[in-house]
Write a structure and sequence with these properties.
single chain, 4 helices, alpha/beta, 5 strands
Length: 160
């Protein structure tokens, strides 16, 4: 009897791969982020990526880091936020994990906590020292949401 393959993807590698692939849908020129929400049975519940709200012409909105109304940050929906909103039945998020390519900001942390997501697996934490990420960790810690950095295989995707 032949043995099965040994080099297949773990669940973490598989779901982070989905999050990374989702990030490639983002039109943001500097930071593409993807998210994948998974239930306790390792079934994908939802996915998302950072982009403009539905119906908003992303050619009319600034994608730069400008000031005031010229800053993308006032308009863009984050990947985690989109993954939560893309879920057909919000109650299905309770007890889920979210795989995300960038550690969540404080606004996304609030949405994660409110929907009952219990675990975050993140790829990158490049804004670790920013106030919004410090607040995020504080919110997640107080709410008992576990967060760990992805430790799986390195994927060959080109995301920024």
């Amino acid at each position: 009897m032949e043995e099965h393959r040994k080099d297949y993807l773990s669940w973490d590698e598989y779901f982070m791969g989905i999050a990374m692939l989702s990030a490639l849908r983002s039109k943001d020129p500097s930071t593409q982020v993807g998210a994948c929400v998974v239930d306790k049975d390792n079934k994908v519940v939802s996915i998302g990526y950072n982009g403009m709200p539905r119906g908003v012409d992303d050619e009319q909105i600034p994608w730069g880091h400008g000031e005031g109304l010229e800053s993308k940050y006032l308009y863009v929906c984050h990947a985690e936020f989109n993954a939560i909103l893309n879920t057909r039945d919000g109650s299905r998020l309770n007890g889920c994990k979210i795989y995300v390519t960038l550690f969540p900001c404080n606004e996304c942390a609030k949405a994660i906590v409110q929907t009952g997501i219990k675990e975050i697996i993140y790829l990158d934490d490049k804004y670790h020292d920013h106030v919004s990420e410090q607040a995020s960790r504080k919110i997640l810690d107080m709410a008992g949401v576990k967060y760990t950095q992805y430790q799986g295989k390195s994927m060959e995707f080109s995301i920024k």
